[in-house]
Design brief:
Blueprint lengths: L1 H9 L4 H8 L6 H30 L8 H48 L11 H29 L5 H26 L5 H10 L1 H14 L5 H24 L18
Keywords: Amino-acid biosynthesis, Cell inner membrane, Cell membrane, Membrane, Sulfate transport, Transmembrane, Transmembrane helix, Transport
InterPro entries: CysZ-like, CysZ/EI24
Membrane topology: Multi-pass membrane protein
């Protein structure tokens, strides 16, 4: 899996060149707007509600001595919790709403990498792409929160917190990579097959998502360029795997995708 993580990261090299060569920037206008607006909204919520959440957390401290200090710390903890939850929500909101705009990008990359082929593609409409994007990301959001909530609590425990923090990062990376890879898988696999494919290639998802998560911490620029280049990187690597493993159905044949289960 470690090799696949490296491959997922290496796929980012050359993404800007590929975007310019294929003229893909125009497809990113609306997704970038969605990303920026969602990011600003998350930060505003963290700023205004950190005090309220901090006051709620401060009630845990029932003693008078040190109450002011704990209240101050609680405000920062409240802000941190909102930011962590906001980051989780941000990723899935942006990826879900961007699905209809990212699928054409992935298709153009596939055509560029594979040329004129006889590959069979599933035909889906704007609404179907949006519906699948929402379904995939709702599923990933639920699972991510299921794992992250106990890990966030553990992250405040000395020593154990270091391991918990690393796991939080890897879990976020995995589900981000999953969403980015699905823009390509949407044309070839149904929902269940896509889940199975990512499980078999989770290293690629983690590598792709790891760069995504790290780049989000770049002020302003992170909200603008992270989604475009991560989608291009995920699409390029996913298409290569599909082609290498002959998982793309051929027109005019009864070839199935059962290999994905093998």
């Amino acid at each position: 899996m470690f090799k696949n993580i490296i491959n997922g990261i290496k796929a980012y090299f050359g993404t800007f060149k590929l975007i310019s060569k294929l003229g893909l920037w125009k497809y990113f206008a609306i997704p970038i707007l969605i990303s920026v607006v969602t990011g600003i909204l998350i930060m505003v919520l963290a700023y205004f509600f950190s005090d309220n959440l901090g006051a709620f957390i401060a009630k845990i401290w029932i003693w008078k001595w040190g109450s002011e200090t704990f209240a101050t710390i609680s405000t920062y903890i409240g802000g941190l919790l909102i930011l962590v939850l906001g980051l989780v929500l941000y990723k899935h909101i942006v990826m879900a709403l961007s699905a209809p705009f990212m699928s054409p990008v992935s298709e153009k990359i596939e055509h560029h990498l594979l040329g004129n082929t006889q590959h069979e593609h599933r035909k889906t409409s704007f609404s179907e792409q949006l519906s699948r994007g929402i379904r995939i990301n709702m599923r990933n959001l639920f699972k991510e929160l299921l794992f992250m909530i106990p890990l966030v609590i553990l992250s405040f425990i000395p020593v154990v917190g270091i391991i918990a923090t690393i796991l939080i990062f890897l879990i976020q990376a995995y589900y981000v990579g999953f969403g980015n890879m699905d823009y390509t898988m949407e044309r070839h696999f149904n929902y269940k097959e896509s889940v199975q494919f990512v499980r078999k290639h989770r290293g690629i998802a983690i590598g792709n998502g790891a760069v995504f998560v790290v780049m989000l911490f770049i002020p302003i620029i992170g909200f603008i360029i992270t989604l475009p280049i991560s989608v291009v990187a995920a699409s390029s690597e996913t298409i290569k795997i599909l082609e290498e493993k002959k998982l793309i159905a051929i027109k005019g044949t009864s070839e199935s995708l059962q290999k994905i289960k093998e």
